[in-house]
Amino acid sequence: MSGTSQRETLDKATAELDPPFAVVDLAAFDANADALVERAGGKPLRVASKSVRCTELLTRVLRRPGWQGVLAYTLAEANWLVRSGVTDDAVVAYPTADRAALRDLAHDDRLRAGVTLMVDSVEQLDLIASVTAETEIRLCIDLDASYRLAGGRVHLGVFRSPVREPGQARTLAETIAKRPGFRLVGIMSYEAQIAGLGDAPPGRRARGLAIRAIQRRSYRELLARRGAAVDAVRAVADLEFVNGGGTGSVRLTGADPSVTEITAGSGLYGPTLFDAYTAWRPTPAAFFAQPVVRRPGPGVVTVLGGGWIASGPTEPSRQPTPWLPRGLKMIGTEGAGEVQTPLRGAAADELRVGDRVWFRHAKAGELCEHVNELHLVEDGAVTAVARTYRGAGHAFL
Question: What's the confidence (pLDDT) of residue 199?
Answer without folding.
Answer: 66
